[in-house]
Design goal:
11 helices, 22% strand, Peroxisomal Thiolase, Chain A, domain 1, 341 residues, alpha/beta, binds acetyl coenzyme *A, single chain
């Protein structure tokens, strides 16, 4: 509103537009940590990890390889696929719970690494749900014509907040990054709908107690191992299945689609048993589900981003295919998105 006259200002571009994913890319570190290696570190076994989680190995970044490095590598691959230069990017969103440092934002470090000097940049924190949250925020900027080109990245160095003495959690996580370039190409396809949700009353199920304003780092907090993630596994498991199923069903309902019309379902890669339970409850066949958890473990915000890139690169997703992404993470947070590739 014009404050002087109380009349609406002229707004030339009111009509929203569709938002496509013009390119995807991912990066995982070269170092492989297999279940057999973990057997030497904690009281566990390949058999326990495989049957309880489906994970066989995960990637661990080098000491001098940080979240922003992995994010930039994934971003460059997505930019190459989209035919976009750093100079053309208007906005960078990095979803992560393992930023290089509390501030500045990892997105700003990525901006510098990829030469995106015209881009605004910020991080978002929605744990394992971060990539879908980021896609939706990016979509809104493209749809409203506020931006032409948005780079959304999910990137994590979870090995830096993993308690390598806690067998309950250290077998689950890995490092990596995935990225997407969002643009409007004039077609109606792209991100068709997104569902997002959260429940802060269950924040304690999955959290890292130390390092924030509530518990800054002290000798005591470090000694008490408060700077590692903690999880109540079985409660998290139940909440994950329930939230992922309802988000997926709501996303399909909003698009007036049936699960049989979906070519590829990409769920958050946390646990094979969660994926199987979700598939069975939403009526998806094993052939519809994309799973790479056995090779990477849970990479949190990077999880569905890496999987989407691999599904496209391997030909599992073809132009025009309908894709359902489903996520769940700490917060609690959850979400689902329907894409037409
Ligand atoms: N090796 C051997 N034994 C183990 C291990 C291990 N690595 N870890 C736990 N155990 C033992 C436990 O101590 C317990 O022993 P007890 O019965 O003697 O006490 C037993 O195995 C069973 O433990 P549970 O925790 O009940 O095992 P469960 O079948 O629930 O599996 C798991 C645990 C894999 C963590 C599962 O609960 C899970 O996947 N939860 C959800 C994870 C998730 O979705 N996270 C969400 C996103 S992550 C994010 O946002 C960052």
């Amino acid at each position: 509103m014009n404050p002087k006259h109380g009349k609406p200002r002229a707004r030339p571009h009111l009509r929203s537009r569709a938002c496509s994913i013009a390119g995807v890319g991912s990066y995982v570190p070269t170092k492989v940590l297999a279940n057999a290696d973990l057997e030497k570190m904690v009281d566990t076994s390949d058999e326990w990890i495989t049957t309880r989680t489906g994970i066989k190995e995960r990637r661990i970044s080098a000491k001098d390889e940080f979240t922003s490095d992995m994010a930039a590598k994934a971003a460059r691959r997505a930019m190459k696929m989209a035919g976009v230069t750093g100079e053309q990017i208007d906005l960078i969103i990095v979803a992560t719970i393992t930023p290089d440092m509390p501030f500045p934002a990892t997105a700003c470090l990525v901006q510098q690494k990829i030469g995106a000097r015209h881009a605004a940049a910020f991080d978002l924190e929605a744990a394992c749900s971060g990539f879908i949250y980021g896609l939706e925020i990016g979509r809104q900027f493209v749809a409203s014509r506020a931006c032409e080109t948005v780079l959304v990245i999910g990137a994590e160095k979870l090995s830096s907040i993993t308690d390598w003495k806690d067998r309950n959690t250290c077998v689950l996580f890995g490092d990596g990054a995935g990225a997407a370039i969002l643009r409007s190409d004039g077609a109606a396809r792209g991100i068709l709908t997104t569902v997002m949700g959260a429940d802060g009353s269950k924040a304690g199920l999955l959290h890292m107690p130390g390092g924030g304003s509530r518990c800054p780092a002290t000798m005591d907090s470090v000694g008490a191992r408060l700077h590692y993630l903690r999880m109540e596994g079985s409660e998290t498991f139940k909440n994950a299945v329930q939230a992922m199923c309802s988000a997926a069903k709501e996303a399909l309902r909003r698009c007036n689609l049936d699960i049989t019309q979906i070519h590829c379902v990409i769920p958050h890669q946390a646990n094979r048993r969660i994926i199987d339970a979700v598939a069975s409850r939403i009526g998806a066949t094993p052939g519809q589900m994309f799973v790479n958890l056995d090779r990477y473990g849970n990479t949190s915000a990077a999880s569905v981003a890496i999987a989407l890139d691999e599904a496209v690169a391997s030909g599992r997703i073809q132009r025009g295919d309908l894709v359902l992404l489903i996520v769940f993470g700490a917060g609690l947070t959850w979400g689902a998105a329907v894409l037409q590739w």
